[in-house]
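Each lists chain and fold; for instance:
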Amino acid sequence: MKTIQAVTYPVHFQKESYKELSKLIEEKNYSTIFILVDENTLEHCYPKFIPNLATDKRIEVIEIESGEINKNLETCTGVWNVLTELEADRKSLLITLGGGVITDLGGFVASCFKRGIDFVNIPTTLLSMVDASVGGKTGVDLGVLKNQIGLFSNPEMVLVDDAYLQTVTPREIRSGTAEIIKYGLTYDIKLFNEIKHNKNLEISDLIFTSINIKNEVVLQDPKENGLRKILNFGHTIGHAIESYFLESEHKNNLTHGEAIAIGMICECFVSAELLNFPKEKLKEVKETIVSIYGKTAILKEDFPSIIDLLKHDKKNVNGQVNFVLLNDYEDYKLDCKVSEDLVIKSIEYYNS
C-alpha cells in the first residue's frame, strides 16, 4: 500500500512501515525509545509490535489507564514525571501505541516535554487509524469538555497496520466506522454507500481512503481556518452528548463514534431545516446509522445539560455555537448558526 505524504510526515502502511520506523530511529540516533501504552495495548498490541522494532537503543514502556476518562492533564503529569525519572532527554523518541486517547495524549505529552521531543503514532483502533493519529491535533480533555487543552503538532511518522484491529472489539470497530461515515457524507459519498449496503467492505481500503481524504483536507487547511472544519461534521452535538454521558452517574458511557453517529443524525436534521438538505437523504442517514448503532435513550431531562455543554465547544466564537451543515451529500456549509430550540428538535427527531 502506497505511503501517503502528510504536511511534514509520511503515513506508512502494513509490514513495510516497521522498516521505515527502524530507519528513522537509526538516522536520528535517538537516545532512548519510550513506548506509551494502556493496559489493553500492553497486553494485546505490544507483543505484536516489539518483534518488528529493530533497534539496539534502550526501550522503556510507560503504561497509563485506558479510557476517555483518563485523557486529562493529571495523566500527562504522571507521564512527564515517569519520563523525567527515566532520564528522558531531548533526543528521546516517544512511540504512541494505542487508540485515540493514547495518540492524542501521547502527542501532547511529547510536544510539551522539554519544549518538544519527537513522537511516532502507531494507531491500534479503527478510530485512531482513520482520524485521531493523522492531522497533527494533540490534546486532552478539561473535565468532561473534549480536547480543550492541546496544540497542533506533527509526528515524525504514522504507522498504520490493520493487523492490530484483530485485538479490538466489534464495538470499537463500529466506533471508528462513524468517522468513515463522516468522510462519506461530507467528501466522498461512495464511502457511505459502501457501508450502507455493507458490500465489499475491505477494511484496509476504507482506512486508506479515509486517511487520504483527511490528508487532502489538512494539506489545504492545516490549522482549521476553513475547509478542515468539515471534519467536525456530527461532532458539535456529538461531543456534547459524549461529554454528558461521560459525566453522568446514571448513564453508560458512549464511545466517541457512537456519540458522533447520533450527532450526524441530529446535524442532518438541522441541515434539512435550515439548508433544505433532502428529507429522503435525512431518512437514509438515520436508518443507516441506527441499523449499525441502535438507539440510545436521550431523555427530555438530559436536554438542558447537553445544551449547556454545547456552549463550551472549542469551535465557538463570541459565545456562538458554530456548525458544519450539509446542503446535500458532499456539499457542505461552514460556520452555521443554530438555535438551541432547533438543536433540541434535532435530538427529538433522533429519538422519534
